Structures are given as C-alpha cells and as structure tokens.
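Notebook entry, structure prediction.
Reason for the run: the old model in the group folder had no record of what sequence produced it. Starting over properly, with the input documented here first.
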Amino acid sequence: MEILDWIVLSTTLFFIVVYGALKTKGSATVKDYLLDNNETPWFTVGISVMATQASAITFLSTPGQAYHDGMGFVQFYFGLPLAMIVIAYTFIPIYHKLKVFTAYEYLEQRFNVETRTLASVLFLIQRGLGTGITIYAPSIILSALLGWNLTMLNIIIGVLVIIYTVSGGTKAVNVTQKQQMFVIMSGMFITFFVILAHLPQDVDFSNVLHIAGANGKMDILDFSYNPETRYTFWSGITGGFFLMLSYFGTDQSQVGRYLSGKSIKESQMGLIMNGILKVPMQFFILLTGVLVFVFFQFNDAPLHFNPINVEKVSNSSQKEAYHDLEKQLNQVNIDKKVVNQIYIEQLKHNEYDNPTLRKKMIALSLEEKELRDDAKTLISKADKSAETNDKDYVFLYFIMNYLPKGLLGLLLAVIISAAMSSSASGLNSLAATTAIDLYKRNVPQKSDKHYVYTTQYFTLFWGIVAIGFACVSSLFENLIQLVNIIGSIFYGTVLGIFLIGFYVKYIKGKAVFYGGIISQTIVILIFLQYIFFESNESEKLGYLWLNLIGVVLTLGISFVLQQFFNKKEA
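New structure, fully documented this time:
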C-alpha cells in the first residue's frame, strides 16, 4: 500500500468513529439509547436497514460468487420486496402500538415469558455467530492479501465498532451508517467504472455483456423445481421470502433500526425504500463481479486467488506439479485473449455472435476450471487443513493488483466500513435483547440510568464475544453463504412463532413454546443430514428451503399440540 492509500483509509475510518462517538454520547434513558427517542427520519431508517444487511461479506463474497457462478445469486433476494410490504403493513403497526424496545417483548404479551425467552435465545445464538463472522470476513482476507496479523485485524475492527456503539447506542449506529453507506456505494461505483476503463479500448459495456453471456454468467433466472439447486426463482420467492420476512421482521438487528422511526409511517417508508433499492443494489454488486470475470478474459488470472495457499503449496513437495498447472493456465490465458478479441471484432464489425467462438470460450472456461480444481487438490495435499475455496479472494485480488493509488485505500475503507456498519447493528441488537428480554425481565424496578449502563456493559460484552469468535473462525465455502445458512437454520422457527402470534389466535403459549423447540430440533437435524454432511456438489437440499420448513413445522406442530392440550384440559 502507498502512503496515499493509508491516508485515505485512516482518515475515513477515523472520521466515522470519532464523529459517531462525539455526536451521540450521553443517553439519559433507555428509550434514547435503544430507540433514539423515536426521532429517526424515514431516509435514515432506510439507509440504516440497508447498511445493517450490507456487511463486508456482501462486498467481498458477492463479486466472487458472481465471478464463479454468475448472476443467479440475485434470485436469493426476489422475496425481499414482498417481505418488506408484509412487514411494513402488519409487523410495524403492532410493534409501535405496543411501544416495545425489542421484537421479543411482544411474544410475552401474546404468549408467555417462556416463548419470549426461547425466541430471544435463538436470536442471540445466530446473531452472536453472525456478528463474529462480519468482523472475521474482512480480517482474514486483508490478512492474506496485505500480510497483516489476523488476530490484530479482528481486534482493531471490533474495538472501532465498540467505541461508538457503546457510547451512543442506536443513534450512533444510525448516524455512522449514513456515512458508511456513502463510502461503500461511492467506492463500488468508482471501482465499477475503473474496471471498465481497464478493459481493451474496443471492448464496450455491450461487449462485456456478450462475453459474460457466452460464458453463462448472465443466466439470471432459473425456473427449475430441483430442490438440490441452491438458487432458483422458486427458492428465492418462497424460501428467500420467509428468510427476509424473519430477518427484517423478527431479527432485532433490523427491528431495532425501524423501531427508532419517528412514526409508523416513517418506519414503513424506510422499509419500502429498502425493498425498492436492495435488489438493484445486489444486482449491481454481482454485475461488478461479472465485470471482474470479463476483465480476466483479457488479463492473466492467477491459478489460485488465496496467496496464503499459494505460498503453502509453493513451499511443499507439490511445488513442481503446481508450477506445471500454472504453465498450462498461462497457455489457456493466452488462448482466451485471442478468442475473446476475435469474438469482439466480429461483434463490432459484423454484429455476428459467432456460435463456434462461443463454444471455444466455454471450452476454455471449463479447461480453466479443471486446472483450478487440480490446483485445489495439490493445495489439500500440501496442507490438509487448508480451505481451498478462494471465491472470497477474487475481488480483493483485483483491487490489490489493478486499482490506482488512493482507490485501494478507499476500497479497503469500503470493506472495513461495511464490516463496522453491520457489526455495530449486531452488537446493539445483542445488547438490547440481553438487557431488555433477559436482564430487565428478571431484574425489574431499577432506574432508567441503571439499564442504560447495563446495556452499555452488554454491548461491550458482546463485542468481546464477537471478537473472540472471529479469532477462532475458519473459512467456510463462501462467507456470504455461511451467514445466510446460519440464519436459515434459526429464522424459520422464530418466524413461525411470530406468525402464530400475529395471525393464529387459536394457538396459545404452551403449544407454541414446545412447538418451537421441536421444530428447531428437526430443522437442525435436517440441516445436518441433508446439507452439512453432503458435499457442495451433491447436497440434497438447498439451504433456503430450511426457512420454509421451519415455518411450516412450527405452525403445524404448534397446532397439533394446541389440540392435544385442549383435549387434555377438557
């Protein structure tokens, strides 16, 4: 990194942290600390909701996902706009009417304290893990690419978040997330156009789409009914809908964002804003990854994007075999450049989409994939514990090697800002749930100031827990998928409980409590049997379906149990 990059990075982060801490310190009441005194305008609500979901994982993993698998991942978000409408006009009015601090307070009023505690604990488990991952995601990749100490990075990012989140609570989260989203989107737009500028002169955006399409990267819609396929239109519109409904409607990290709105209408407008902008935003980020793919059709791509793994295999007995693969890839890179250039020339002069050249491009891509798979095998032989999946390193490899001075610092600021924004929401929600749903519920009749201090202590506690989890985490297949998988395991059950509360008055607390426990147990068993123990190539069930399964099981089992309890009482 150059001095200019360091200046851009440090100045951006320093301003966000210091401004957030100074602007928002000194909350006198729990309402002020957790709900920002219900003074948040709709635009800030919308930005905060978007920033909470748009973690560093989004900007690290999503382009890599598109590079390898194309635009199909966008189907994951197809259920989001519909979920926003349902939440805006059913969930929000209930939360505001009851004047709750957390979503789980509602469950005690509707059912009993046991159900409230169950939902709170399930949230704390999945969000505690998720917040650790949001810190770990940028740390491990920055560590690999820059040589920085991984543990040190986890601590630095965690401490930066803790400083202003402990100080200002929800207001600090909301204030800083506006700045973070500005940095994030500015950086991504600049990067997009920089990639375009680095392509050959005669390659315009239309040509980019043709090349991407010829390689199967623009296959956006999949209408197949195969449950083994992770991302289809149907899994997105059903499983994705229930995942988004649960995440935005029952997850305190999101509920806390719009509970701070000035009014029901302001909160609703903020969510609708997210529903309108989120899918286009994800489409754009995926398209940036596709653009990186096209860039490497005209520039040499490495055999493996994770430099740590490359170093391991280069210092092992597999060194010569790995170098042989690199030589083969060099020839493939040369052939790709020639074929793609001819393809572009024919498009430009004859408007002829040559099917023979398309087949050649696909064949070269398959050959490249085989070489990369062989490289992963060698890496595994060199180090059996090595994570060979390098999707999360693709985008950062590009920005580290091809971005001009200053922009590298900006993109690193984007990644760290995104990590901070989602982590801050996570810590704030974890602290709120622990303080309100567990501590205050069992330690009542204390002063408002006492609960403010308690919430701050819990924020610090969860910050330390998240840093600790980040320090012991290891890469999964793809970080953005890992977060969504963790959510899918728990969200279905929690959403089922809330849906019963909102819409099925027949079912009472005892039935839904035991129904939730049984449902969650079954979902975990299904995950272990059909997803966790199966390879990525042959898993029997796409993880998005866990959300629908969890909802259906919770509803069905609770209904049956309620009938049983009614008969027993009669």
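Summary: Residues 79 and 240 are 5 Å apart (CA to CA).
The old model has been moved to the deprecated folder.
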